[in-house]
Amino acid sequence: MTKQRTFILFSLLPALLLLAVFTFYPFFRGVVMAFQNYVLFDLTNVRFIGFQNFENAFNDPKFLYALRNSAIWVVSSLTLQFLIGLSLALVLRRGFRGRGVYQGFVFYSWALSGFLIGLIWKWMFNSQMGVVNDLLMRAGLIEQRIGFLSDPNWAMVSVIVANVWYGIAFFAIMLLAALQSVPAELYEAAGMDGAGAIRKFFSVTLPYIVPTIIATTLLRAIWIFNDPSLIYGLTNGGPAGSTHILSSLMMEKILSGGDYGSASAIGVIMLAMLMLYTVFYLFVTKSEKVGDF
Amino acid sequence: MKALKIKKSMQVAVSTVAVASLIAACGNGGESTGTGSNGSGSGGGETVTLRMIESLTNPDRTAMLNTMIDKFEEENPNIKVELISPPFEQADTKIRTMLAAKQELDVLESRDLNVAEFVNNGYLEPLDDYAAKWSDFETVTSVARAVGTTQEKLYFISNGMYQRQMFYRADWLKEKGIEVPKTYEELVNAAVALTDPANNRYGFSFRGGPGSNSVPDTMVRDYNADNVDLTDPNFLKSGATIFSTPEAKAAIELYVKLYKEASPPDSVNWGFQEQVQAFTSGVTAFLLQDPDVIASLQNDMEEGTWSSAMMPVGPAGKALISAGGAGWSLASHSKHKEEAWKLIAFLSNPEQNTIFSKGYGTIPIHSTAVEDEFFQSGPYKTLIEMTNLPETYLNFKATVDYPANGQWGTLNMETGQRMLLGQATVEDTLKEWDNFWTKAKEAVK
């Protein structure tokens, strides 16, 4: 018995080792760097500086602005992605001619990289040469071209639109899978009890797919919060820093200043926020059913 | 029972081997390509594999470099070259990271913007001794030597020189009877006159996004003219920054006018691509750019619709120009310095450098090559003309010695955008720029 146990432990070792080297060490290193003055241009002067990086972050109006933007970015992207994704899934559940092709088109965006999507939408939103302005002008909806990415009031809206487009597919795929697993008998039974379409949705469909909804929104919120690629490709945080979210700001600290210390501090703050969020979310949604799909 | 035991130990052995090979595969990136030593290649001696990385990546240029490398490998059968071509936006970060992590690297592309930073960290090998023994070094122009020199030592052999000029829509100017502008004042007036938002036509191809600092830097220097320290061009001869003077304020006010009255509002966010695209697609009338855009203008625009002119000058009738450049450096931790230098010397010889310059649109580094018919005509001619007017076009040495250079682009872009969008005043913005360079100077003292 003990031999078997040793064997199990021994077999686990390689996996643990891989995790330690490729996950835990970089993570640990990142946390350590958050307390250091670690600037790539100045590697001869690496030293511990306590909470200075965190203090700097909270005293920086740019950070606070990005914090606010992150909240707007996550909540509005997630809500819209979920609602549109759910409606698409409901539509796609019924069979109709050309469903396969249509499904392919809907899911297509999910296969692209966020950075690439950023670059594509950047040209589409371009006020002089972009297709969005062109269509709106031709449709007679606007008289003057809109600087979607250059007007600070529009820029955040524009990046959210692109992000919603990107993420709808994920919800549509996941929710469609969940919808297809709802047993048909339940609808029959509900129908016999005299339930209409709306009643069926709220009393049969929704309860059945709630675990999937919880798991997908939880995951997706974390992804949206963490992923700078779309913003990086689309606006690079501009104009004048008006579209920075925490993750894109963190990237900028590294790319333009080589400041790994400040970037790591932002990373640690983001991590703390995500942990709180997860605990809170699982608590309010009663976690035991999550992932049960 | 025994059979079971054997089976178990086999399992252990197999899983260990599998993991070991997996780890080895992960580590491969850094290790395997060092000293390849298969003597099977022709020549019989040991084959050396050099790793080389480029910074100003674009697909055509990479293809050209690969052709040159093939030729080099043909001439030197014992040397193999592995070219790494990261996307342009991430290239410098990638190079920096490879150098900091001491990953296997022999030849790298340094830029005038970041060479000081590399030198300060001890990443680069001085090339003076190698160049002294190189017969082709004699014809390398003094500008090309200067751009690769930091702290009085040569750290890269430039692969071509960039110098800005003005491109304009010849047909639009003719239509409106406007003369080709010679000063910034005239440029702004002409650009305003050509602006017609209703027809989606604007005067100037503005660039407020990445790389935004080029035009304001140039204008401020031209307005300060003779007072600028030509060896330290962000500072005046008095030691103050160029952004601290009333002339700087006049220049930047004109610059803001250029954006507000003559440029597409969207351009506050534009980078290189949008700026050039706007010109080639017929949205804008004037473009200030390096010669590497010439090829795309020739491809995308009808002949006769565009032309080039010398850079505008400031109110004193003078302009400060500088040839920028990037080039091949030798990594100080390279294990094959002799072979790496051989590669650098090959890529920089008059024949290869001229091919590269013609294909990529830069000015060759050898004085003998500039006499080539190709560089005596069309848009290249304007560049040569500018260098022939040393009284008007004062040549300065680009600021390469400040590690802060790397951050200037981002700071200028963000503060500049705030100013252009009316969220900050010209005075406050200039004060920020002044502070930045004052601190940058203190840091290197």
Essential attributes:
heterodimer, A: 293 residues, mainly alpha, MetI-like fold, two-stranded antiparallel ribbon, 12 helices, 2 strands, B: 445 residues, alpha/beta, D-Maltodextrin-Binding Protein, domain 2, 2 domains, five-stranded mixed beta sheet, four-stranded mixed beta sheet, 13% strand, globular, disordered N terminus
**Overall number of domains of chain B:** 2
What's the tally of helices of chain B?
Answer: 18
Strand content of chain A: under 5%
User: What count of helical segments of chain A does DSSP give?
Assistant: 12
Number of strands of chain A: 2
CATH class of the largest domain in chain B reads Alpha Beta
Helical percent range of chain B? 40-55%
* Global Rg of chain A: 24 Å
Q: What fraction of the residues of chain B are assigned to beta strands by DSSP?
A: 5-15%
Largest interface: A-B, 36 and 45 residues
CATH homologous superfamily heading of the largest domain in chain B: Periplasmic binding protein-like II
Structural class of chain B: alpha/beta
- How is the biggest beta sheet of chain B arranged? 5 strands, mixed
The CATH topology label of the largest domain in chain B is: D-Maltodextrin-Binding Protein, domain 2
